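chain below, 438 aa
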Amino acid sequence: MRLQLAQLSALLFSILLMVSGNAFLMTLLGVRLSGSGTTTNIIGWVLLCYFIGFVIGTLYADRVIRRVGHIRAFAVFAATTAAAALLYPYLDKPIWWAGLRVISGLSMAGLLVVVESWFSARATNSNRATLFAIYQIAFYIASAGGQLLINIGDPLTFAPFTLAGILLIIALIPLSLTRVQAPSIEHVEHLPLRRLLHLVPLGMITSLASGLVINAFYALGPVYATQIALSLGELSIFMALAVIVAMLFAWPLGWISDRVERRHALMWVALGAALASISTALFGEQDYRLLLLCTGLFMGLTAALYPLAVAMVNDRMDSREIVAASAGLLLSYGIGACLGPALGSLMMTLFGPSGLFLGNGVILLALVPLSRYWITQVKPLPLAEQEHFVAAMPATTPVLAGIDPRNEAFEEAALSEPEDERRAAPTPEENPVAGEQS
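prediction:
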């Protein structure tokens, strides 16, 4: 039991360091590019490259892990992510930064696959709901904490990039000092997007829209804040508050969505998020407190769209297909994430800083008539037949969906001995003395 607690604590500490360093770097890059006079369009294209790399990583990182093992793969991905963070000041051109963002996204996806595999391997039928929640809370807290680090050092100097690299390197230490048992990496099947679109079109469209809006904000929110002349302290609170409110809104909105027809919940959440986004566009530059209020409401409601999409899909599918369906939804979300910064930067170029929230508001508003249309076209499920809402965070890999409390096909993982001990045990051929004694 003590060993399991130590391993779980090491995993959580590594997650906190890794996610905070990555979130800090995302914000830092937006501030640095904006402060150096780079056009908003170029900033959007540079930053969306991270999401391209992340999507590729979620699809192919498991091949590296199977080849070299979890511990070595974690070291490779962490070192690559840290090296990329340290290289930005040396390769101070948008084209190089775009390449580094692809590498960072790919490596970060690999890190999450490794960590989530270890995390999932510690799940049992009795504790997986708790572990699922703990992981997401840790992720949100680390993301918010990373935003606050922007206050340390001048973004136009080397120091902040060095700090981001240090955080990503230190993430190696907790796991390296723990005797971590190696879980198996199972290939996660993806339901074809065409099939998901046919079965639950509103869920797929909502997932795509969620990826567009959320990642446009995370990539370009710091650019917006810089352009409206917020101080670094105000910017860090602006970004961190959005993350915290997204976490806090998850439970009450989920509680409500379990007690009304799911599409009605989606329609009203999308409408509220759209109004909050448009209010930010209209009034955000006038008063900082009003900006925080509107942005908090916008992100709190918008962050609920993806778990609502997952809930709608799960309502209509066999519970044994939840993992495959979640993988398909994450891919749809990832496609939206790749498009969001490009569309957001275009809107900011055309309409100024407020164009970011104006464009997001239009996308969210479009979900309202779509929801209304499918309410009239598809017979509703009785509330008793709806799956329970679970706050599913999209900034993960399909591996974590395995411990979703709704997944009835869950099987407890069989752990092997720690990888380091397995490699350290010599064979008779490698140890002739031991061979002779035997």
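DSSP finds 17 helices and no strands in the chain. The domain at 2-410 is CATH 1.20.1250.20 (Growth Hormone; Chain: A;).
thats it, cya
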